[in-house]
Amino acid sequence: MEPVHSLSTDQIAAFVSLAHAGSLRAAAESLHITEQGVRNRLLALESRLGVELYRKSRGIRRVTPLTPQGRLLLPKAMAFLHQAAELCDLFATGDYVREVNVVASQYLIEYVLIDAVRRFHDAHPLIRIRLSARTEQTIEETLLSDPDVALGVAAPYESLPDLLYTHLFSMPWSVIAPRRHALARHKMLTLAELADQPLVLYERGSTGRQHVVEAFSRLGLSPRVEMEATNTDLIVRMVEAGLGLSIVPLMPSGVVTQGRRVAIRSLEGQIRPIDSGILVRKGEPLPAAARKFVEFVRQDWPGGEEPNAKSAKAN
Fold it and tell me: Is the Cα dihedral 158, 159, 162, 168 positive or negative?
């Protein structure tokens, strides 16, 4: 029997945290230890493996601090931590509660995930889902920098080779207007009719804003942006108050505008739909508790793909 090499989960966790966080300082913060503590663990790991895993010299900031040997080790290190977690769970009994950290957009938390998490907790009382609201762009950044976050639920902002996307559902676009607005008398509207109207749109840097601006641009038009807002609920309130019209993706159930004094008119495919789904880190197996949650959520949208189906894409 070959001798078993001594590798600790602390050493491997320090390495994975460095890879995701990008610096010793950020890795130390995520692990709640000192920078020197992270450095000591990494040096011990390098000594055991006999290779340099990350660049020590300061200078031009790189996308990753890892050496080629470090990049080769990363997927195996993440699998090592995953297997260690499964060993710890193997004999867990009684009141042992597992927590899954999920980052998602405010829209999806409010109109999709709150109900899904409530039902999941009823079905799996020993798995707690912890939701944190982020913008689409910061959801992707958080997944790449924080190993404690298991997955994201969002409309991907851009294509990232280190993330995998599983499609759940798409939302078409509609115009919302005050009920007495002149355009509310039309059954259907075009972007050309909206070009000179004061619009309340999503903030710059969001997937929604990107889709709307692209659609106007294809027609050689520029939207007249009167106001910006960070979430759909706020946009609906602004329109209801008569501050302008808006263009938003809406859930088929109508829950977003239910009870609001606004008129809704379809844009019939004039803007690319918002695709929403699950984002996970490429090459990193999901913990068992996180897999259960993904499977539970996908039951509502059986047309989605497996979590490792494809790379994260732009909408």
Answer: positive
